[in-house]
Specification:
This protein is α/β, with parallel strands linked by helices. The chain folds into 2 domains: 2-135, 3-Layer(aba) Sandwich (Rossmann fold); 154-318, Rossmann fold (3-Layer(aba) Sandwich), CATH 3.40.50. Helices cover 38% and strands 18% of the residues. The protein is built from 12 helices and 12 strands. It has a 6-stranded parallel sheet, with helices on both faces. It has a 6-stranded parallel sheet with strand order 9-8-7-10-11-12, sandwiched between helices. The termini are far apart.
């Protein structure tokens, strides 16, 4: 059976789809798993041994997308997050069975509409994705391996990086930027305090990571720590290299953004900051890694509560 799984949005959203893709392949190794992804997620999809083929959504016309899909001779599709364009493209491609959550106008183009009420956040996003696979296979096992993605050469990549940067201690990394659905974070002054707390303990090497489009943020933080031992890494070597690197870190500290999901996916312990709303909470956006390796903090709106939580975060960093 040729099964199309659709999750063509942001990095963190795609990572929440990987457990569902994994269990579909594990259910029957003869299933051919094809994914429809955004361009930025193609590299990760290519590294997954449970993905057989990839369609990259270049966001051209719905007719162009429909042709791409039709050429793959899909038997069944599972759309984890839908919009009208995606729904119509699958309809035009004449996929016999099309499964999707029963939301928005787009649902009329699917043959199997599943009521999930994700806005109620009764489970995490990746758990809702897993639940959708039951519409196709009632007896499917929803257990998946953790970490979900491993690399044979990650230790070598890390060792070379450490040698190049004269690193002799385990790394605690901070990623202070954010995007996606994250709506809460510490400000840069607060991050400076947290980083100095780790430096004061002098147990770990502090490393700060930045995306290729965060040059201003990169320069700002370099100026704050120009006389310190902090190492600054601008992630221009590709997302797979970044995955291999962070899989060796002692801890990855960030807000709830794509890099957090990357770190958890490769088995790295995380300390993560979430918004206080249900929509942005850890209940909805916890990542796919081991629960025991994820430490979540919900940043409140009130100044007093925020201040108390900040002190709690400092104490937790002291105990790393």
């Amino acid at each position: 059976m040729n099964i199309l799984v659709v999750r063509n949005d942001k990095l963190g959203d795609f990572i929440t789809a990987l457990p569902a893709i994994y269990v579909l392949k594990k259910y029957n190794q003869n299933n051919k798993i094809i994914v429809l992804v955004a361009p930025l997620n193609k590299a990760i999809a290519m590294e997954c041994d449970f993905i057989d083929d990839i369609i990259v959504d270049d966001e051209k016309s719905v007719w162009s997308l429909a042709k791409k899909i039709k050429d793959k001779k899909i038997d069944t599709s599972i759309t984890l997050f839908s919009n009208t364009r995606i729904a119509i493209a699958q309809f035009l491609a004449r996929i016999p069975k099309r499964i999707a959550p029963a939301t928005k106008i787009a649902q009329i183009f699917y043959t199997n509409r599943v009521k999930q009420r994700r806005s109620q956040v009764e489970m995490a996003e990746f758990e809702y994705n897993l639940e959708l696979t039951k519409e196709l296979f009632k007896d499917i096992n929803l257990e998946y391996r953790k970490p979900l993605l491993e690399f044979e050469d990650s230790k070598n990549i890390y060792d070379v990086f450490c040698k190049k940067n004269k690193i002799e201690k385990e790394i605690v990394a901070f990623h202070v930027g954010f995007g996606g659905s994250s709506d809460a974070n510490w400000n840069l002054d607060e991050y400076e305090i947290l980083i100095k707390e780790v430096l004061r303990e002098d147990k770990y090497q502090v490393l700060m990571t930045f995306g290729p489009d965060e040059q201003d943020l990169y320069e700002n933080m370099r100026n704050r720590f120009k006389d310190s031992s902090v190492i600054f890494y601008n992630s221009v070597d590709g997302i797979i290299y970044f995955c291999k690197l962070i899989s060796n870190f002692k801890l990855f500290v960030s807000t709830s953004t794509g890099t957090y999901h990357l770190a958890s996916m490769v088995g790295t312990p995380t300390m993560t900051f979430f918004g206080s709303s249900l929509f942005a909470s850890s209940k909805r956006w916890k990542s796919i890694g081991e629960d025991s390796k994820q430490k979540h903090f919900m940043i409140p709106v009130s100044v007093e509560s925020r201040s108390k939580l900040f002190e709690d975060v400092k104490r937790n960093l002291e105990m790393v």
